[in-house]
Design a protein that fits this description.
The chain is extended and about 170 Å long. 43% of the residues lie in helices and 5% in strands. Among the domains are: 114 residues, Arc Repressor Mutant, subunit A (Orthogonal Bundle); 73 residues, no CATH class. With 381 residues, the chain is mostly helical.
Length: 381
């Protein structure tokens, strides 16, 4: 009694046409009559987009033209933070659904124009100009209208002729009666000239982020080769490639594949790579099923090539120039610490000593001068 039954859901499930699936989701499709947005399965089931990016794309499609779709505006509308919204916009920009371009206005202000395309793959196909499309549409519409008018206008006249009973010819008439003249069908009016489409503002150039399938592909990276090929290196590389099937049976190579891949293994051996390391790198975690083992080995030999081992001189840390540090000394007079290469006195004590020595010499000089003057006076007397 405490379990509530959803009668509306039960009634809706009963109205679903066809047998219900034994497992999985059951769709109850109710057509929308207002306030809906058409979303393609290429977006809803995109393998490279996260659910957050798909939700942000649907939110942007549902907004009217001119609405602000910046990071802060979307974060204010959604429960996701600004970091998740920014990451979702980057995903949409990578897959071609969103494009943001900086445009300079006539006044010198720089603004960001956001362009959202609900089907970016359609932009890669050539499209007819809008004027030609409208002209062909109007021409076909006018032609179909005139054809329908020609087919429908004689209908009332024919109906009247069938409704009236045939008039019997008089017996006295010796000459056959002339056939009744049917009303002429009025000619169809000439098609109206197509109305020229109003000039539209130039659209922003759309640069697809995903290259089209017909774009030229870059040349493949060449297989590495040893700097100094020797018979010993070639023999060791050939033996290593031929021995791969003992450790991984799916890497059974033909003689032609071994002859083509041997220079790449020789380049690894030349760079002092251990054979066990090479074998583990080439055969570790292969895809299932492995259809082209030679192509996989060629890719790994090229992409995972280790650098040459550094020399003994390259491993030595660079020596920095040593800076001579003047040691501390203690002043003999005031016990103050100062930097000097030899013990002695600090600067203040040296200046004080120099000043006292100067005063002593000056005093001695004045005393001698005074004694000389006194002796001169005595001699004169």
């Amino acid at each position: 009694m405490d379990t509530q039954q959803n009668t509306a859901l039960t009634r809706a499930l009963a109205e679903v046409p066809g047998p219900l699936p034994a497992s999985g989701v059951i769709h109850i499709v109710i057509p929308h009559t207002s306030r809906f947005t058409v979303v393609g399965n290429h977006l809803a089931q995109h393998p490279d987009l996260s659910c957050t990016a798909v939700g942000i794309a649907v939110r942007i499609q549902s907004l009217p033209p001119g609405a602000r779709v910046g990071i802060k505006e979307l974060a204010a509308r959604c429960r996701e933070g600004e970091k998740r919204v920014a990451a979702a916009l980057r995903e949409l920009e990578t897959c071609g659904y969103l494009q943001r371009a900086r445009v300079r206005l006539p006044g010198g202000r720089i603004v960001t124009r956001t362009v959202f395309c609900n089907q970016p793959t359609a932009l890669l196909r050539p499209r007819r100009p809008a004027a030609a499309a409208s002209t062909s549409t109007s021409t076909s519409t006018s032609t179909s209208t005139s054809t329908a008018a020609v087919q429908q206008r004689p209908a009332p006249v024919q109906a009247q002729a069938e409704a009236q009973p045939p008039t019997p010819a008089p017996a006295q008439a010796s000459a056959p009666a002339a056939p009744a003249a049917r009303p002429a069908t009025p000619p169809a009016p000439p098609p109206a000239p197509p109305t020229p489409a109003p000039p539209q503002p130039p659209a922003l150039p759309f640069v697809p982020l995903v290259p089209p399938p017909t774009a030229p592909k870059p040349p493949p990276t060449p297989l590495p080769r040893p700097g100094g090929p020797t018979p010993e290196l070639d023999r060791a590389a050939t033996a290593l490639l031929g021995d791969l099937r003992r450790h991984a049976p799916q890497f059974t190579l033909s003689e032609t594949d071994i002859r083509q891949l041997a220079p790449g293994v020789a380049a690894w051996l030349e760079r002092d790579a251990h054979p066990d390391t090479i074998r583990h790198t080439l055969t570790n975690d292969p895809p299932h099923p492995l259809r082209h083992p030679a192509k996989l080995l060629r890719h790994r030999l090229t992409a995972l090539l280790p650098p040459p081992l550094p020399g003994s001189l390259d491993l030595v840390a660079p020596t920095r120039p040593r800076i001579a540090v003047t040691p501390f000394q203690t002043c003999d007079d005031c016990d103050r610490a100062f930097r000097s290469s030899a013990p002695g006195h600090c600067r203040d004590c040296r200046e004080d000593r120099a000043y006292r020595a100067y005063r002593t010499e000056d005093r001695a000089g004045r005393t001698e001068d005074r004694a000389g003057r006194t002796e001169g006076v005595r001699t004169a007397a």
